[in-house]
Design brief:
The structure holds 2 protein chains of 2 kinds.
Chain A (H helix, E strand, L loop, with lengths): L1 H21 L13 H28 L2 H33 L7 H22 L3 H15 L2 H11 L19 H36 L1
Helix pairs in contact in A: 1-7, 2-3, 2-5, 2-7, 3-4, 3-5, 3-7, 4-5, 4-6
Chain B lengths: L1 H9 L4 H32 L7
Classes of the chains: A mainly alpha, B mainly alpha.
Chain lengths: ~210, ~55
């Protein structure tokens, strides 16, 4: 955990200084584009955490790993917050750029559905008193909801949307200047380290409480 | 120096949107990080173990 704290602190410090000060203003969006440095990491983590939950769900259902189910349920709250923040910061970006806080655009709507999926998994797990049944039912819901992940990712390609296309590309050169790109990568690393850290802190509390109760 | 700071804070007219986005994100993430840490300290206290506080 100390390594995660160091990674989080260093990458967040560089990401914030780079994003707010070192990166030049965008030629079209001016200084308003700096919202990207919190919006993109939140959106990226909202998808990544759900993909991780689907992996934990499969691990729990196939190999009957109790730890995997715990990791799945403890991830839901973190993912829900990232999704909520992605929608909120997207609205704060949308108002000056598009002239509106919200529009029923394919990317925005599918991301909102993801938020409902997170809340649904949390509600379902809380509603079933039997822990084993709750874990299995939630895992099935997580796997059904996974269909939303490629829809969110490809929504900007499949439909005409106000939301811009992908600027960060894994297997091709990114459509963003390196001066803007490096702080963005640092912020994504910081948010990923944050997810791992909060998940470990939550799991530690869950297991300590269970051991104390025995 | 002060002019540069003022320009930085004003964000070319986007200050409301930029600073509120950063404030809300960092604030809510800090709260989410603080909650399990606080719960852990409470658990340690219940079991009479030394805390980080």
């Amino acid at each position: 955990m100390p390594y995660l704290v160091v990674l989080l602190s260093l990458s967040l410090a560089y990401g914030l200084v780079g994003g707010l000060y070192l990166a030049p203003p965008d030629y079209l969006q001016g200084e308003g584009f700096r919202i990207l440095y919190v919006h993109v990491p939140c959106a990226f983590l909202s998808l990544t955490v759900y993909a991780a939950m689907a992996f934990f769900a499969v691990s729990g259902l196939v190999w009957r790993l109790k730890l995997a189910f715990r990791m799945m349920t403890e991830s839901a709250g973190i993912g829900a917050l990232f999704t909520f923040l992605a929608l909120l910061t997207g609205s704060l970006w949308g108002k000056p750029m598009w002239g509106t806080f919200w529009i029923w655009d394919a990317r925005l709507t599918s991301e909102l559905i993801l938020l409902f999926l997170y809340l649904g998994t949390m509600a379902l797990h809380a509603a079933i008193p039997n822990r084993r049944v709750a874990d299995q039912a939630t895992a099935v819901l997580v796997l059904i909801g996974f269909v939303d992940i490629p829809i969110i990712h490809y929504s900007v390609n499949w439909w005409n949307t106000l939301h811009q296309g992908s600027t960060l590309r894994l297997f091709a050169p990114s459509l963003i200047d390196p001066q803007m790109l490096y702080p963005l990568i640092a912020m994504i690393v910081a948010f990923a380290a944050y997810y791992a850290l909060v998940l470990l802190l939550r799991l530690r509390c869950v297991f300590a409480a269970e051991l104390g109760a025995r | 120096m002060l002019i540069a700071l003022k320009q930085f804070l004003l964000m070319d007219g986007y200050a409301t949107y930029v600073w509120s986005a950063y404030g809300i994100v960092l604030g809510m993430l800090a709260i989410q990080l603080f909650k399990p840490w606080k719960r852990w300290q409470k658990l340690l206290k219940q079991q009479h173990l030394p805390t980080d506080e």
